[in-house]
Amino acid sequence: MSVDIAVRHRLGNFDLDIAFAGAASGVTALFGPSGAGKSATVGMIAGLIRPDSGRIAIDGETMFDAAAGVNVPARRRRIGYVFQDGRLFPHLSVRRNLQFGARRARSHPAGASFDDIVALLGLGDLLERRPAGLSGGERQRVALGRALLFGPRLLLLDEPLAALDQGRKAEIIPFLQRLRDEAGIPIVYVSHAIDEVAQLADTVVLMSGGRVAAQGSVFDITARLDLFPLTGRFEAGSVVAARIVGHDAGDRLSELALGAGGGNSAGAGRLWVPEIAAPAGSNIRLRIRARDVMLALTEPEAISANNVLRGSVSDIRLDDGAYADVQVDVGAAKLIARITRRSVTRLGLAPGLPVFAVIKSVTVDRRMPDAPNLPLGEHGEAS
Questions:
Q1: What confidence score (pLDDT) does residue 173 get?
Q2: Element (H, E) at 180
Q3: How confident is the model at residue 104 (pLDDT cuts 50, 70, 90)?
Q4: Which of 38, 110, 306, 317 is the most buried (most CB within 10 A)?
Q5: Distance between CA 224 and CA 327 in Å, rounded?
Q6: How far apart are CA 337 and CA 355, in angstroms?
Q7: Residues 61, 74: contact at Cβ < 8 Å?
Q8: Are strands 3-11 and 53-58 parallel, antiparallel or unpaired?
Q9: What span, in angstroms and rounded, lies between the C-alpha atoms of 157 and 287?
Q10: Is 322 exposed, middle or buried (0-12, 13-18, 19+ CB in 10 A)?
Q11: Is the per-residue pLDDT at 109 higher than 50?
């Protein structure tokens, strides 16, 4: 199930000119700063906003074509839509909110059953409660369940975590990961938070000023230095795939093979991180922040950092201020180091130069589990 969109639309003084093809499976993230046109784009996909011109198709079926005079009503597009606030019916129990979605699916009953969705999202203990008695994360899980029970062919999630604090975000992200891996429904996910995109997205459509600035895999987009002004300079870092090789029970560490899980980083080296509660062989993804990577010209010895990875400089971007971002290829993986301009000059860094990337175990982003071969309750934390 793919989404193809090429539309133009004027919203007040804002011109939207968007064209991209969403992935046929997994999560396509529309990522960019507030005001980039992300929510308007999903509104047009859903049929809530009529574009001025262009075409929208889902799995080859035309939903909108200005030239041909086609505009399929929103109710007939079979698209599930989850907003920031969930928009549950406050006077109905969780069960009845979910049943509302199921009733709308009677014309296409091939989707997951009520019990399947309740189990997938962990809603069993909430069924008799009302929305006012739920946490923000619980309300969003119910909203997801209601959308899934509609039997959608596409799921649109418009900033579903924006109204939640960090604790509630941490509560719901594992459910979103499980939804991505098990539901079999393509998802378009809107966010301006790079950590959410890094954890959830397979494909990233980077938007700025009503245009698509770049599109590609989450591994490629997060590693591109030229996009840092848009992806977030101070939160910059790369996402890499890895596989758990084993565990050191004595030191409570886990050994990872970078790139073994796929993506852009096959066979990139080994990394030690604080123990991950998942068995050897599990695939995960990691986000390694640029500010947590140091560079050396010779292999350092007698240091506290457990990870010294051999690589070579592939790109350098000088900031307007004192900083520089250096892209380092470690095997096929791409790491980013944020250092000063002085360090670039002092070390004579240039593309092709061999270097060693030094990474403290405790700095690897611990919010990055990505193990679709595990039951939900066994997802570990990549520490």
A1: 85
A2: helix 166-182
A3: low
A4: 38
A5: 8
A6: 11
A7: no
A8: antiparallel
A9: 22
A10: exposed
A11: no
343-371: per-residue pLDDT in tens? 999 999 999 999 999 999 998 865 444 43
C-alpha distances in Å from residue 102, one per residue of 13, 86, 118, 183: 40, 17, 12, 16
Cβ burial, residue 100 (10 Å; 0-12/13-18/19+): middle
Residue with tokens 């971007």: 317
Sign of CA dihedral 91, 96, 99, 103: negative
Judge if pTM exceeds 0.70: yes
| Residue at token pair 């900083």 | 323
| DSSP H helical ranges for 183-252 | 194-200, 218-223, 228-231
Backbone angles phi, psi at 5, to 5 degrees: -140, 135
> Which two structure tokens, joined as six digits, stand for 252?
């409570």
Tokens of 259: 């790139």
